Amino acid sequence: MIKMKNIKAIFRRGQTQASSKSEPGQLREDLTRCSSATNLAETKSKGAFSKLRKSASKDKLDKLTEKKGERDVASNNNKPNGGGDVDETLEVEFLQRQLTEMAKEKCDLVLELGERKGELQILKNEIVKLKEQSVFRIEQLSDENTSLRNRLRDVAHSPLSDNEKRQLLLDAERHSSAPASIATNLLDDESGDVTSCPTPDWDKHSSSNVSEVSVACLQDKINQMQETHYSTNEELQATLQELTDLQRQLTELQQDNERLSDEKNLMFDSLCRQTERLNDARTEVESLKQLLYREKDESGQFESIVDREQKLVALLKSAQEERETLLLKQEQLANELQDARASNVEHAAEIEQLTERVRTLESTLDAKHAEHKQIDQELALAKDQCSGRQIEINRLTDLLENARTKINELEQERALNDKSELDELLDNARKEKDGLESEVAHLKEQLARSRNEIEKFREQVSILQEECKVTRNNAKCTQSELEYKCERLTAEKASVNDQLQQLQEAANELQVQAQCQVEDKRQLSTVLSETQRNLSEAERRNNDLDREIDELQRIRKEENEEWEKFQNDLLTSVRVANDFKSEAQQELQKMIMENKAHRERIRQLESQVDKLKVSEPVLRPESFSNDDMATRRQKVGLNRQNSR
């Protein structure tokens, strides 16, 4: 009876605990409804309510851990037989920790992927800027090239005669070896009209030297610009190749992200199935509790021990089957965790490779920035030189106009001089003309070569411009694609974060439910052990009672046999007693008759004695004493018979 009372108290406590557990379950449902409503309302309220949900889940976990500690203390005080349940709880906690670690790793990977996307966007912007700068520089170089070609054409098609060119060259040779002060002194010592204008000859000489030097410098600069253009083109091709590689890596990462989302959906489905099974198990536990709490039937009799034992055995079988299924699911989850860890390791290796590539790209970008700075400095110097040359060209044009006017004046003066001087001058002029014609032919060849080179440069510049346009279009396409992919990845990241939060909350709820299930299972195991003990004791008592009943039946048979014998003996004794009674009654009647007769005789004798006393006063004492004794004996015997 005491054990049955303990069992009832334990089950009542389990009912109270189940009711207390149902309250946080209702609270959880209310929280999930509120969360769905707030998700539809606003994102800001969603963040605030998620914090409230987290705080409420923490409070529930604290309460449940406190209740679990109290139940563990009570179960340890009652009977410490929960080793298997503790192992199951530890395994479930280990799986949940692994799930949380996976979620954290996934979040870290998503954050790193976002950082890499930001770096890629920065690199793309820098590449676009570099392309624009290169295109702008190519346009500037083409403009400078056209301006220099125009200047060369102007110099080549100048309207100077052969004698003028010869005179200018001789003056240039003369003034090239001496400074301006010496040249002016020499010209002052000479006569007449020659000394009247010393500075124009020096200016002509300097302009010719400047034109030759400028042509050489321009050719060098064109070569340098061509080399820089080739180098920039190669760098752009390398950057485009790296962009294609990064785009391919982005596609691979997107595929991995989709695979992870599929795995997450599978895990979410498995968690939903586990929740359904936990609810089914909870309903079964409640039904078991109701069956165990039911004390009496409607007829007022207790249920038989055999029926209870059969029900408990069936429940134990179902619990064992559920445990096997849960172990199989646990193995599957462990395999999935291992696969996820392997994929995380692969992602980490890919991320390291991407970081290395990004570092190399950063180093190449730094080198390109340094090269572009140098090119900018060179371009600034070239612009300064071009501006100085433009000033010199303007000054030389003015000097050429002055020289032409002076040459016209000199020709007029020569026409007025003697014919002899004219013949000599004509011979000298013819010689100078022949030399100048040879020089002009040589200069024409050089101009033709320079024109061919310029045409080649133009073709190369046009090709490079087309390539730059193609690269610009490709870069724009890749940029638009990458922007679309980045937006898509950000949206997927947000959805993944939301799903991860939901999964974490579901995992926490499942952990709480698993703890409740483990506690209920522990209580059921204790109750089952106690009931099994009670059953064993009841069976033992039943066996003892059967033995006692057998012995009592045997004793009863013996007693019945003895009783029958006693009844038979008693009947015989009653018959004998009746016979004795009848005989005694007959003898009593005889004795009464004899007593009456004796009384009458005694009376007669007394009367006779009285008569004798009167008649005979003296009698012998012996005779009288004997007669008295006989009479007394007769009286005593009669009194005894009357008393009977």
From TrEMBL:
Q: Where is this region: Disordered?
A: 1-34, 47-87, 189-208, 617-644
Top-level taxon of origin: Eukaryota
User: Where do transmembrane segments lie in this chain?
Assistant: none
Keyword entries, A-Z:
Coiled coil
Keyword Coiled coil appears in the UniProt entry: yes
Q: Where is the composition biased (Polar residues)?
A: 14-23
State if Coiled coil is listed as a keyword.
yes
Which residues does UniProt assign to the signal peptide?
A: none
Q: Know the name of this protein?
A: Uncharacterized protein
